[in-house]
Amino acid sequence: MLAFTVALLLPGCASWFIKGEAPEVLVTNVTPLDATTFEQRLRVDLRVRNPNDFDYHLTGIDFTLALNGKRLARGLGSKEVTIPRLGDAVITIDTTTSTLDIVHQLLQFSQKQELMYDIKGVLHSVEGRLPFTNTGTLVEPGMFSGSPTNSSTTPQ
Fold this sequence. Notes:
Elements: H1 2-9, E1 24-35, E2 39-50, E3 56-67, E4 70-77, E5 81-83, E6 87-98, H2 99-108, E7 115-125, E8 128-139
Antiparallel strand pairs: 1-2, 2-6, 3-4, 3-5, 3-7, 7-8
C-alpha cells in the first residue's frame, strides 16, 4: 500500500527532486515591436545563469514582468535551450501587452527615477519546474535626460 501511494505522488512532485541551485534570470533588454491601437508587442531578452556544475536543459519559460511595481507583460516560450554548467545563455521571448498599459507606464515614468523591474516565473526543465524571481534596474536615473556625461576632454 505504501509503495502504491508513493507511486501516485511522485509524478506530481518532480520539482521536489531537482538538484542544485535554481538558475538566476535577469532582464537584459525590452524592445518595443509593432503596435496596434489595443496591443503592443515586446521583445524581452532574458539572461539565464546556471550556477551549478551540470547543464540545465530547459524546455520552456513562463514569466510575468513588472516595471516600477506595475505589471507590464506575461511571457511564454517553448524554445528548448541548454544552459551550460557554470555558464549562461540569453533567451528571447516575444510577448504582447496592452497599448494602454504602455501609455500609463510612459506617463508615470520620470527621467529622474530608476526604471526597476521585477520578474517572476517558472523555468520548465526535463527534470521539473524551477521557480524564479528577481529584481533589477533597467534604466538609471537621468540616463535619458540629455545631460552631459562626466567625461572631460583637454585640448592638446
